[in-house]
Design brief:
219 residues; alpha/beta; Collagenase (Catalytic Domain); seven-stranded mixed sheet; two-stranded parallel ribbon; 5 helices; 29% helix
Length: 219
């Protein structure tokens, strides 16, 4: 199915290259040169994305731009799975990352899974690819307070964005006290809640080095 962006004003679907809506002419894509562009796959509950953007910006010292348009959910929907395709969602997000942007971040309320045999993923990214995704769905299963939900989502998104800056996982045995401690088997909220909320000095240096490279290359 062809990908599109939905205008939040008139709900018209537009080609992902369209900066303004072809129906109501409202701006639906904002410039994000030198910034992280935040996209929503379908509507996302209010009061989260603005706080998340500020948290990410403070942690990575990179501006964040919240895009007005909604990414089309249909290409990543998998009726026979327990949610949406993590690979397609990531590809949709990556397709929206413009050359001079630091990275694109996709957020969804839907469950994201890599195949029919998985129950959920908190987030998904490939090392060095300038795109990352995160799901709110597994973070709200115990009906958390808004403050706890925001902290959980911030941990997941910062961890996944760390991968876009070329950061790999620290092992649990290293005990670095860093957001990048973890592996692909993290599968419970207790693990998220007990995880760290900061990058170690080595990861901060890696982020800074990667950011300078991105700015020089204009990517």
């Amino acid at each position: 199915m062809k990908d599109s962006n939905t205008c939040p004003h008139c709900l018209q679907r537009n080609q992902i290259e369209n900066g303004s809506c072809g129906d109501c002419n409202q701006l639906i894509i904002l410039p994000a040169d030198g910034a992280i562009s935040i996209w929503r796959l379908g509507p996302v509950r209010g009061g989260l994305i603005g706080i998340l953007a500020r948290t990410i910006s403070d942690a990575l010292t990179v501006p964040c731009v919240i895009q007005p348009a909604f990414m089309d959910e249909r290409p990543s929907l998998r009726p026979d799975w327990k949610g949406i395709s993590s690979n397609v969602f990531l590809r949709q997000t990556h397709d929206r990352c413009k050359k001079r942007e630091v990275a694109a971040l996709g957020i969804t309320e839907r469950n994201i899974v890599p195949s029919a045999s998985y129950n959920f993923l908190f987030g998904f990214a490939y090392l060095g690819l300038p795109a990352a995704t995160a799901s709110i769905h597994p973070l709200v299963q115990d009906d958390p307070t808004k403050e706890i939900l925001i902290e959980r989502l911030a941990k997941i998104t910062l961890h996944e964005l760390g991968h876009t800056f070329g950061l790999d996982h620290h092992s649990y045995e290293e005990d670095e006290g860093c957001l990048m401690v973890g592996d692909e088997t993290v599968d419970c909220l207790e693990g998220v809640d007990s995880g760290n909320f900061r990058f170690c000095e080595a990861c901060i240096a890696g982020i800074e080095k990667n950011r300078r490279i991105k700015m020089v290359r204009g990517c």
